[in-house]
Amino acid sequence: MSVSMFRAAGLGLLLLASPVLAQPAPPAPPEAPMMGRGGNGPYAGMSEAGRTVMREAMRANAEDRRANREAVKAARDRMMAVVEADRLDTAALKRAMDDERNIAMASHDRRQAAMLAGLTKLSTEDRKAFVAGARASRERMASRMDKMRERWGNRAERRGNRMAPPQQN
């Protein structure tokens, strides 16, 4: 008798659980907005011709950025080598720092020139759309950073704002 009661109870539980088990999975969350064509990036709202002009202006600097990263890294390595030496050579350190700044500024100037060349080719409508997209991108990034800061702040609060103890040597 007790076996049939367990079977009946099990069957009853299965019948109660079947609607829950039969429910379809929730839909996937919407994809993050894409940058560029059709997305919400700085090119959103621009004509196809305007997008093409700005993409080409940005792409023109892609190889420059890679080479620039390597040159900046080499300058920073020189700075670290000077700082790491037994005797600090401040003149050599200043030269290495100047080299790093000059490399970064030259790259920045080239990017600005390419951007200026691209923007001068745009129609008034495309320029306005570019500004609107750039502002929206900046606001999205600020919102993401605020959320990230909030998460990290909450994490610190949960830990009781304890600082890690100093390392023992």
From TrEMBL:
Residues 26-47, 132-169 are annotated as: Disordered. InterPro entries: Metal_resist. Keywords: Signal. Residues 1-22 form the signal peptide. Residues 136-160 have a biased composition (Basic and acidic residues). This is Putative membrane protein.
